[in-house]
Write a structure and sequence with these properties.
Elements: E1 3-7, H1 14-24, E2 37-41, E3 46-48, E4 51-53, E5 67-70, H2 82-93, E6 97-100, H3 105-110, E7 118-119, H4 126-132, E8 137-138, E9 144-146, E10 150-153, H5 157-171, H6 173-183, H7 210-218, H8 226-232, H9 237-248, H10 252-270, H11 275-281, H12 287-298, H13 302-310
Parallel strand pairs: 1-2, 1-5, 5-6, 6-10, 7-8
Antiparallel strand pairs: 3-4, 9-10
Helix pairs in contact: 1-5, 5-6, 7-8, 8-9, 10-11, 10-12, 11-12
Length: about 300
């Protein structure tokens, strides 16, 4: 059983804290794998929004956790408490995977964990994070960043994306998707997707790219071109591409590749199909193409990815 510790302090955002608790506190119905041992750690009672919270343990417990999660807090003008910063740094040095949600990135930056690393936070605070911590490579245009043992997310809903990403890393896509269905959220949004898209509210009567996306998902094992998808939506390629990006935050090609990778991951986790057959079913055509795209997405080759889940 993996242990997850939530590091809390006064003024933390209750949305991100509650979100992490919802994901890691209990396994959803039907999931039989050992779930997480969740603890809440802090220096005595803390105020979270309008609530008073009594942590289970002190901050020294963080260094015994497999994963430490640091939610954000509202007033980033205030430096994070030194005891929290020290405890998070010590946990990472002891081997913990450390993840921040929203403005929790300021704690990781203060601990030096983001120096020389790419990181993100809520788009409204990225400039401040970059100014206060110039050694951090701040990316304002992504949902989350996975650096292996150090992860950061943008704000609000992106925190859910990172939590689901952690579940996916630990238990595979199928279980992460089960958690997402229980929470009624999209099962997977790629970390590189834009976190903020300035656009007007969509007109309710205008054509959507949704039917074209549904068609593409039904036909991932075959050639799916941009022209095919545009035709399904009865749009020109140019209009379709613009509207697709407005609706999803990414280009059609980026979205399509992500769906192919997701299918390949599930087939690797759940079947004994050979890699070349999985490549065909996911629409990559060859094992070499699948290997290249999976390596880019998760950092491992198909055989290593499968072995990781078969060994659990």
């Amino acid at each position: 059983m993996r242990s997850v510790a939530l590091a809390v302090t006064d003024g933390m955002l209750h949305f991100e804290l509650s979100l992490a608790h919802e994901v890691f506190a209990a396994a959803p119905a039907g999931v039989t794998v050992p779930w997480y041992d969740l603890t809440v750690c802090g220096s005595g009672a803390v105020r979270v929004g309008r609530f008073r919270l009594e942590p289970d343990h002190g901050l020294d417990r963080l260094r015994h956790a497999d994963t430490v999660i640091v939610p954000g807090w509202a007033d980033t003008d205030v430096e994070p408490p030194a005891d929290l910063v020290d405890a998070v740094r010590a946990a990472h040095e002891a081997g913990a995977r450390v993840a921040s949600l929203c403005t929790g990135a300021f704690v990781l930056a203060a601990a030096g964990l983001l120096d020389g690393r790419r990181a993100t936070t809520h788009w409204a605070h990225t400039a401040d994070l970059a100014a206060r911590h110039p050694r951090v490579d701040v990316d304002p245009d992504v949902l989350y960043v996975d650096n292996g043992t150090v992860l950061t997310s943008a704000g609000k809903a992106a925190a859910m994306d990172l939590c689901l990403h952690l579940v996916r890393l630990d238990h595979g896509s199928a279980i992460a998707n089960t958690v997402a269905r229980r929470l009624v959220v999209p099962p997977h949004r790629d970390g590189g997707q834009a976190q903020f898209i300035a656009r007007p509210v969509p007109e309710t009567r205008r054509a959507s790219t949704g039917p074209a996306r549904a068609w593409a998902l039904r036909n991932l094992d075959g050639p799916v071109t941009l022209a095919d998808m545009a035709a399904r939506a009865s749009m020109s390629v140019r209009t379709f591409t613009r509207r697709f990006r407005q609706e999803t935050g990414v280009s059609p090609q980026v979205w399509l590749t992500a769906q192919r990778v997701e299918r390949a991951r599930r087939l690797l986790e759940e079947t004994d199909l050979p890699v070349d057959r999985i490549a065909e079913r996911a629409g990559f055509g060859t094992a070499a193409s699948l290997r290249r795209h999976l390596q880019a997405a998760v950092g491992v080759a198909p055989t290593a990815y499968r072995a990781t889940f078969r060994g659990r």
